[in-house]
Automatic annotation (TrEMBL):
It is found in: Membrane. It comes from Candidatus Kryptonium thompsonii. This is Transporter, CPA2 family. Keywords: Antiport, Ion transport, Membrane, Sodium, Sodium transport, Transmembrane, Transmembrane helix, Transport. Its main location: membrane. The chain crosses the membrane at residues 47-67, 73-96, 108-125, 159-179, 185-205, 217-237, 249-269. Residues 6-264 form the Cation/H+ exchanger transmembrane domain.
């Protein structure tokens, strides 16, 4: 934000959008990397995913606090989220127990209903619709822990249908001429993002006694950005806080941050896991017992 304000001379609101968009991590990229490498079953993978979740939750909250309309709609939105966080885990758990496996997928329809309803309230309050989705995921995680089939269906729906349409919309608003015109600024913003992430994450990794390889891997994955970065930039564009040229610049930086740190991390710093985490060991023991019980 400081770099955008005092070096690039962007407006205060545009600088805030830049700061928020480039402070995010990429849950989508990190989740995909963790699953494909098997690190999601290890303690380090779960730690990185949790850290990305907390980071993105913080950036979405910042977006809402800085730009929300403080009126009756915001009050209704906050009240609805509070009620949903208390009630929805019980309702979702009941639906999963009773309806999971039905062809019509009523449990997924329930989730979509909750997300769209709260997302509509968020839009009316000039907040970001992804915030209630994040909070619902947080409180309902326990209910989904033992329903892997539904989790798989949600993942397929998200990555195969919803995510591509979102990125088509976000990408269609990028101006190619603006990107080529701002290549120098894009490179500088990408460097600033990675340096600030390095300063913020790597020392903490060392404080928590990570070895150099694991600390560097964690820092690089925490430097990624994609979905929430583009969401923040699109939020700024649709509400007139940034120009289309600034939007194009930010989205290009965000995409670059999804690719470059991930390639470096996977190529040079991927942790060498030699033992099962306690969680994975428990999962495998449970699977063995179930197999024996079946026999």
């Amino acid at each position: 934000m400081t770099f955008a304000k005092f070096v690039l001379h962007w407006s205060p609101d545009a600088s805030k959008i830049a700061g928020i968009a480039l402070s995010t991590t990429s849950d989508a990229v990190v989740y995909a990397v963790m699953v494909e490498t098997g690190l999601n079953k290890m303690d380090i993978g779960k730690l990185i995913l949790a850290a990305c979740f907390v980071t993105d939750l913080g950036t979405v909250l910042a977006l809402g606090i800085l730009f929300a309309n403080y009126n009756i709609w915001l009050a209704l939105f906050i009240a609805a989220i509070a009620i949903a966080m208390v009630v929805s885990p019980k309702i979702v758990k009941t639906f999963l127990s009773r309806f999971e496996g039905h062809v019509s997928e009523p449990e997924i329809k329930l989730l979509l209903l909750l997300i769209f309803a709260l997302g509509g309230l968020a839009a009316k309050a000039n907040s970001e619709a992804v915030l209630p989705a994040y909070l619902l995921g947080l409180v309902c995680a326990g209910a989904f822990a033992h329903h892997r089939e539904t989790m798989h269906h949600i993942r397929v729906t998200t990555f195969a249908l919803l995510t591509p349409f979102y990125f088509l919309k976000a990408g269609a608003l990028v101006q190619a001429t603006a990107v080529f015109k701002s290549l120098g600024i894009i490179a500088l913003l990408l460097i600033v993002k990675m340096i600030t992430k390095l300063i913020g994450v790597y020392p903490l990794a060392k404080i928590f006694r990570m070895d150099t390889r694991t600390g560097a891997y964690t820092t690089l994955l925490m430097s990624t950005g994609l979905t929430f970065g583009t969401i923040s930039a699109l939020f700024g564009l649709t509400r007139g806080y940034i120009t289309q040229e600034q939007y194009s610049t930010l989205v290009t930086v965000v995409i670059g941050s999804a690719i470059i740190p991930t390639l470096i991390a996977q190529s040079f710093f991927r942790p060498k896991v030699t033992a099962l985490s306690s969680v994975q060991a428990e999962d495998e023991a449970l699977a063995i017992n179930e197999h024996k019980g079946g026999k």
